[in-house]
Amino acid sequence: MDRHSDTVFIDGEWVRARGSARYDIVSASTEETIATAPVGSAEDVDAAVAAARRAFDDPSGWANWEPARRAAALERFAEVLDERGPEIARLVTGQNGMPITISSVSEAVIPGTLLRYYATLLRETPTETERPSATGGTTVVRQVPIGVIAAIVPWNFPQTLTFYKLAPALAAGNTVVVKPAPETTLDAFVVADAATAAGIPPGVLNIVSGGPDTGAALVEHPGVDKVAFTGSTRAGRGIAETCGRLLRPVTLELGGKSATIILDDVDLATEVGKMFTCTLVNSGQTCMLGTRILAPRSRYAEVVDAFAGLVGMLPVGDPFDPGVILGPLVSERQRDRVEAYIAKGRDEARLVAGGTRPAGLDKGWFVAPTVFADVDNDAVIAREEIFGPVLAVIPYDGDDDAVRIANDSAYGLGGSVWSADAERARAVATRVRTGTVGVNFYQIDHHSPFGGVKDSGLGRELGPEALTSYRHTQSVYLG
Ligand code: NAD
User: What is the pLDDT of residue 210?
Assistant: First the structure.
């Protein structure tokens, strides 16, 4: 068992958790318990928030450091995390089953990249500007940190999604309490050690492990000034209700059911391989994936064949094998959920690929990548987020119909449009009502805002906009 099985990270130290409850961290690919961690109690949350509050209120502390000094600290933090990147990638893969080829280029790298990006923005962006006031004098508009941030993250890209919050929140001068997902806790503990090694002052970053109850205690805590949440729409809605009652700012990055729109002039043979990253990556456990494939009726059979061919070529197996493209699902519960949707899909549509557990993999929560054809956009498998490797190919008639179907969803997170004519694809893309959309490509751009509309969430992460979202403005009227 690991050294953190009894401790949480509060005020710069590993302290014994107040409660006695523990949970197991289980490998998605071997089904073995690899560690245990404490279920953070209300007392642990209380202690973490108190430490964050003290650090925030310290007149010579983090919030009041010159921006350049905070930027330098973030860059040291980035360096330590970069050094520990390969270890972080192995820990993530060992827990959630993400292929090592993905964790090595996301979880190992993005934390450092984002810290450096926000450190640079911090140096470049003034936090005070003066303007002539309506009364004839001068007003100073100050950008000030909000206070104590509660950051709650899921298991699918645990480090990436932690640093979508942590990097801008810390850069702006806030202090933070992170609650990692129970499925991926060990990588979060490395972040705590890295913060200490980089000289991030005690209390600026606190990490309390646990599940929904720990998260709920944090969201409701009177000492928290803003909540940043990534996870399911169901949990996000509850958190929004609590934050509404408390008038507490909240950012919500929630689920999705995006559309991959294939226009009738597309060169399928060249493009379909590129569509993997925006339809199936991480075994479909990625929020922005376009799992509704909208295919022109004139080329419907060709699109179905192309996706059936694509999934047939994807190596599924041990996520530590560098040749593997699809690993297992994160947990038995998640596999049960995905298999229930596949069973529903068999009633609602025509199964053309997958639909079973892959042969020869006795351990691990694997599901073969699956394609359904003849799917109606009103079918359950077209409306609900499955969060597994399951695609629904939906026919459409003309570009307007494609846009109509793409927008006929409770969600609005991502999506992409594919065409031999980039201008035509772009014109269609701008009619899609989602927070982000790709043209012949989809990759999240860390320099630009990311987030959703409708049931996909509130607010934006990334880009300079995220720094703004972790600040209040204060107008000082000079007499
Ligand atoms: P989840 O909502 O069950 O859990 C997410 C996190 O919130 C975990 O840390 C969990 O312990 C905590 N939590 C759960 N209920 C809570 C509550 N009531 N109060 C406070 N904290 C609570 O989601 P999950 O199954 O772990 O993650 C998958 C979901 O996350 C999918 O729906 C996916 O689309 C979404 N997601 C969204 C994005 C995005 O950026 N929009 C990114 C990744 C995942």
Answer: 98
Q: Catalytic one among 107, 220, 278, 287? A: 287
Give the number of other Cβ atoms within 10 Å of residue 135's Cβ.
9
State in Å: Cα 252 to ligand 1 middle.
10
Q: In terms of domains, do 417 and 295 share one?
A: yes
Which residue ranges of the chain lie beneath pLDDT 70? 1-3
Query: Scanning the structure block, which residue is given the tokens 């929560």?
Result: 365
CA distances, 126 to each of 66, 67, 113, 114, 172 (Å): 11, 9, 22, 19, 11
Is residue 152 lining ligand 1, measured as CB closer than 6 Å? yes
436 within ligand 1 shell (Cβ under 6 A): no
Same domain, 218 and 99: yes
Exposed / middle / buried, residue 213 (Cβ in 10 Å: 0-12, 13-18, 19+):
middle
pLDDT digits (tens, 9 = 90+) for 205-242: 999 999 999 999 999 999 999 999 999 999 999 999 99
Its domain, for residue 272, covers 259-445
Active site residue 287: yes
> Which pLDDT value is given to residue 1?
44
Whether residues 53 and 87 share a domain: the answer is: yes
- For the CA of 181, the nearest atom of ligand 1: 9
pLDDT of residue 175: 99
Alpha carbon distance 361, 97 (integer Å)? 14
Does 253 qualify as catalytic in the annotation?
A: yes
